[in-house]
C-alpha cells in the first residue's frame, strides 16, 4: 500500500511537471516574432513584414527533461535532481559575419541546429529565421543583437533515475533508453527576450565579398564595435554606397505583439531592449548534458555519446552550414541563368550540384543510422567532397553592339541604361517592356522598362515623347520571363528613321517609316545563341541619333577557395 501511494504521488508530480511544460510551451509560442524589411537600392522603404508564432514542442522546457540532440527533439524525463536560480547577463553587441557558421554563433544558434538537414529535425524559430536569409557562400552579415535575461535555472545535482525508469546495462537497453529519453538532458535554461537585426549583403563572387568587407571596414564598422546612434549612421552610409543586394530582417522574443523599429532606428531599439518589460518571457537559451555524465548510467552510454558528439561537433556544424551555403550559391547562380535564358554550358556547376545533393544524402544517412541505432559506431569523413572545388563565382562578358556606323555624335544627349553591369546583375535586372513612338520619317522615342528584384519597374524614355498628328505610339511589347529580344532592324541617316523590334515568341513592334528615303542606311542585329540584350546606350533628343545595344553572355563559373 505504501509503495502504491509513493508511485501515485510520483505520477502526480510527473503530471504537474507536464502541466508546467505545457505552460512554458504556451509562453514560447506567444513570445517569438520575426520581421523582414527588405532595403531597396532606390531607398524607397517598401517593407515586407512577416510576423509569426510557431509551436516549439520540439524544444525541452523543463530541467532534467530528456532531449535528442541529433534529432532536435524533446523527450521524456528520466532523471530526478535539484536546481537553483542563478543570475544572467543582459547585453547588446554588433558582429560582422562572413559565413553562416559564424552567424549561427553570433545569434546563439547551436545544439541540434548544427545538424539541421530535413527531414530529421523540427524547425525552431531561430532556424527558420536563419533559413529565411537565403544565405550563400559569399553573403556577409552585420548583426545587431540584444539580450534581456529574466532568469537562468541550472541543475545542481542529479539524484538518480525516476521511479519506473530502468538503468540501461546492455546495448538493447541503451537503444531503448535513447528512444524514450533521448541522448542528453536539459541541464540549464534561460528565460527572457532577444532582439536581433541582421543586415544581409549578397555578393556574386569571393572578390565582391572581399570588396564589401573593405567597404565595411572603411565605414568604421568593426567586429565588436559599440552599439549606439553613430553605428546606425555608419550602417546607413554603407547601405547608400554599396552596390550589393541588401536585406534587413528582424527577430524578437519575450514581448507580446512587438512593434519593430524602422531601418533608421535599429541600434536605438537594440540599446533600449534590455530595459523593456518582458510581457511574454520566452525560453531563449538552454544547455544539455549527456547521460554519460550521470553516475548511475555512466560508461554504458559511451558509444551513444561518441556518436552524438561526432554528429553535433563544431566541425560537423561548420561543414553542414558550408554545405547549405554552397547549395544556396549554386542555386542562385542557376536561377540567374534561368532569368537570362537558361545557360546550359556550365557542366562543372551541374556536377558539383549533384555532389552537394549526394553529400546531403550521405550526412542524412549518418543521422538516420544514429536514430535507428545510436550505439552502432559511426565513421564520418573529416571533410565532404563538395568542398574540393571551392566557391563558384558568376562570370559574364559585356559586349556593346554598334548599329549605326555613321551615327551623329553631336546631336542630343548621351544616355547609358547600364552604366554598371555588376549592379545590373546583382539586382537581377531585365528588360520588361519596349514601346516606340514614330512619325513618317523618324523614330521619335524609345520607351524601355526595366524590372528588378530590388527596385520597382522603371521606364526610361530615349528621345521626345511629344507628338504631333503624324506620329503614332506603338503597342507596348511586354517581355515576360523566358522571352527575349530576338532581333532589331531599321534604317537611319543622321537619325533613326525606322525601327523594328521582334521577340523570341514572335511578337513585334515598329516605329517610323523611311522606305522612300533613298539615302537611308539599313542596320540589322539578330540575337546570338549565347548572348542576350540587357539595355541600350546612345544619343537622343528630339529623336534618336545613335543607338547601341548592350549585350551580355555567360561563361562557366570560376571557382575560388574561401579567403
UniProtKB/TrEMBL annotation:
Residues 401-556 form the Jacalin-type lectin domain. Residues 1-25 are annotated as: Disordered. It holds the Pfam family Jacalin. Gene3D superfamilies: Jacalin-like lectin domain (2.100.10.30). InterPro entries: Jacalin-like_lectin_dom, Jacalin-like_lectin_dom_sf. This is Jacalin-type lectin domain-containing protein. It comes from Ceratopteris richardii.
